[in-house]
Amino acid sequence: xxxxxxxxxxxxxxxxxxxxxxxxxxxxxxxxxxxxxxxxxxxxxxxxxxxxxxxxxxxxxxxxxxxxxxxxxxxxxxxxxxxxxxxxxxxxxxxxxxxxxxxxxxxxxxxxxxxxxxxxxxxxxxxxxxxxxxxxxxxxxxxxxxxxxxxxxxxxxxxxxxxxxxxxxxxxxxxxxxxxxxxxxxxxxxxxxxxxxxxxxxxxxxxxxxxxxxxxxxxxxxxxx
Amino acid sequence: xxxxxxxxxxxxxxxxxxxxxxxxxxxxxxxxxxxxxxxxxxxxxxxxxxxxxxxxxxxxxxxxxxxxxxxxxxxxxxxxxxxxxxxxxxxxxxxxxxxxxxxxxxxxxxxxxxxxxxxxxxxxxxxxxxxxxxxxxxxxxxxxxxxxxxxxxxxxxxxxxxxxxxxxxxxxxxxxxxxxxxxxxxxxxxxxxxxxxxxxxxxxxxxxxxxxxxxxxxxxxxxxxxxxxxxxxxxxxxxxxxxxxxxxxxxxxxxxxxxxxxxxxxxxxxxxxxxxxxxxxxxxxxxxxxxxxxxxxxxxxxxxxxxxxxxxxxxxxxxxxxxxxxxxxxxxxxxxxxxxxxxxxxxxxxxxxxxxxxxxxxxxxxxxxxxxxxxxxxxxxxxxxxxxxxxxxxxxxxxxxxxxxxxxxxxxxxxxxxxxxxxxxxxxxxxxxxxxxxxxxxxxxxxxxxxxxxxxxxxxxxxxxxxxxxxxxxxxxxxxxxxxxxxxxxxxxxxxxxxxxxxxxxxxxxxxxxxxxxxxxxxxxxxxxxxxxxxxxxxxxxxxxxxxxxxxxxxxxxxxxxxxxxxxxxxxxxxxxxxxxxxxxxxxxxxxxxxxxxxxxxxxxxxxxxxxxxxxxxxxxxxxxxxxxxxxxxxxxxxxxxxxxxxxxxxxxxxxxxxxxxxxxxxxxxxxxxxxxxxxxxxxxxxxxxxxxxxxxxxxxxxxxxxxxxxxxxxxxxxxxxxxxxxxxxxxxxxxxxxx
Lengths: 225, 740
Ligand SMILES: Nc1ncnc2c1ncn2[C@@H]1O[C@H](COP(=O)(O)OP(=O)(O)O)[C@@H](O)[C@H]1O
Ligand SMILES: [Mg+2]
Fold this sequence. Notes:
The structure holds 2 protein chains of 2 kinds. Helix content of chain A is 34%, strand content 29%. Chain A is an alpha/beta fold. Chain A starts with a strand and ends with a strand. Chain B folds into 4 domains: 1-53 and 171-317, no CATH class; 57-162, no CATH class; 322-389 and 594-740, no CATH class; 392-495 and 505-565, no CATH class. The model of chain B is unreliable at 107-111, 318-322 and 735-740 (pLDDT under 50). By secondary structure, chain B is an alpha+beta fold. Bound molecules: adenosine-5'-diphosphate and magnesium ion.
């Protein structure tokens, strides 16, 4: 079953001679449960694409369908709710809220939804993420790897249809990076979680089911393992 | 508490200084609103007290109500209090018109009636009943009800008289003074609200901008624009809850102080004191208006924040968006200020939006200050034209020279002069008592030993120009010291008298010796004017009283006026004059405590200054809170840029220069816009007052200079302060801090 379909997606910045085609007529689709890695040179448009997939930016033209739903046809509010429930985004620099502790950061999407937090799921997540003994720490009391694990927890808490990760290991030492990758693979295998991950580490990319190579806003290679 | 609200509180806490300043802004604006309304209601209360003191505390007077029918008034549920007075009988009234007049007046003044409780038990006959209703608004309905009851009881038709003056001041009937007062208050409050919205909005914008990343992150994990919007509004709510109550307390205190100050300054000038009066409705109105101010202030930033694409918000790319347009930095900037200058210039040009808010705040304050201060200088000028900046303390007219001498001796007056002005000549001639004349002549360099030959002439006259303004010029430009002037004796003068019995006026013609022209030698043309003539314009000659035989000029002894100066205490003299007047010694004696009149006008002027400058001060203060918030935040947001500049080796000197240039740019830009607007405002005020005044436009130099100096100092201090805050931060931490 196709969980994500992208049709003719375009994102341009600027005007006239300054115009940049960050994403240039891109079409592809992703099956449920796939683990996709996107690689490419810096500035090739990977982040822009990921933001468009996650509904946090607005495309110049083209469509993004998640579970058959054209997300840019939704109202701003509906799109936000959609993001909240169907998408989990992980950034290179964690983007945690400094004044909230580990548990509060993770459960933020539930709080936004006004939903009671599923205690069992939370405990499970904390165990999996190895954050059980750090529950009430603030982000600045955590290492980079731990912070990234918190942001993965936050992405996973609502059981989203799709996880989008933008160089989640890019800011970490190799050991922490390895741990994060293991976690992602685990959730992919255990929960059949669909993951799209940007990386420029080919070693990491090679562990994915599928590797899409990006250049100048276009897909130039799309290989399955 | 919901998580978003918790975040808001946390961010308010974290930015303590800004939160405080914003709360201060809200507090000031609601205090100002309350103070304006409170002053109006207090003045209204004064008018009511005044009316009650004069006419009595009643709404309707029922004429000649039979004592047995009083119960219809007593028992009416809407009657709050009532008084009675005994009407005069036909006999008592008689045909005497004066008695009738007295009675008519007495019937409407308080002293004549008493509480009904004191009505003797065996009272009989008819009484005038004065009634105060509990709901003045419905006075007509209540009255009709009482009249119906009285009529059906057989009391017959009862005449009533409504105390419309009291009803007007209680706001039931339309009153032009009161409605003018309320209109003015409404306009002032409108200005306050608009200004405050503008200014407070900034604080929310800044906060929203600062929190943009947080909002972007929240929104990327699914916070809806609605939630974000609500969050900004929630911030407004918190600020309002903190600021408005404080503002109300401050406003009440301000009104208490203002009322006290008014009573001190106006003491003796008014029938009733201004009473502190704040009806309950003031509070919900103030809270409502302040609340609307805060909500409108946070609405725009809220909507804008909600609209941002999350990723733009995370990058912080909207409010802080930098235009990449091509820029040519003028050579002199690089020349004078070096690299720092170039950076400052680019900063200002590429992120205008951030600067606009600060510039507009300054513009607003400068414009109100310049505009209102020129309003004040017109007020001062106008009041000095009316009351004069005369040096005299006492003026007496209508008595004779003998009496003046008596007065001078009795009260040991040192500086005095008495004059008669005669109309028998076609130029004004003032006869001055020779003691003073000698002194005055000496002071203008003329030896007046032979005062019978000396004539001093002030030959200036005011000429009206077509523009309606006046110019002072010489009346006889060819005249020189020592020249003789031809003076025509005017053949007659008339005096109009009103015959009180017939109501006709009657002219009494006096004939003078018209034996042709006479020649008067002008000893010296002078610019100085003697005591009491400071505000006199027109050709006037001064001679000693003995200069010309009084008989020939036929100056009546009682046309002399006395002016006296440098009196410590005028009160006893006035008291004495009161006695003299009562004794009937002089038929038309007139006297004025000029010292007190002038002191009063100065006090009124002071009062108006307190109000106007107080208003300007608070508006400015609200503006300053905003300028402070914008500048400190702008600088803080650029902490990274500063840290980087220093990390690549910008020296402290260069850095300081850069900051100085930016300040200069702020100041000049704000003044270039603000001063012309203020001047336009001041000219508009002049134009609207021009008809009532006979002087030209006064360029508000001092206000302009004060604005320039104050704005420069203020911006300088705030810039320096904000930069100091930034400089304290560690370079590397600052740079690392803002990664996305
Ligand atoms: N907000 C923006 N404004 C203008 N250009 C942008 C913006 N964001 C990204 N770009 C441009 O789009 C291109 C793709 O950027 P990005 O998607 O971040 O690349 P990647 O993540 O592959 O390194 C780059 O050339 C970048 O300059
Ligand atoms: Mg990227």
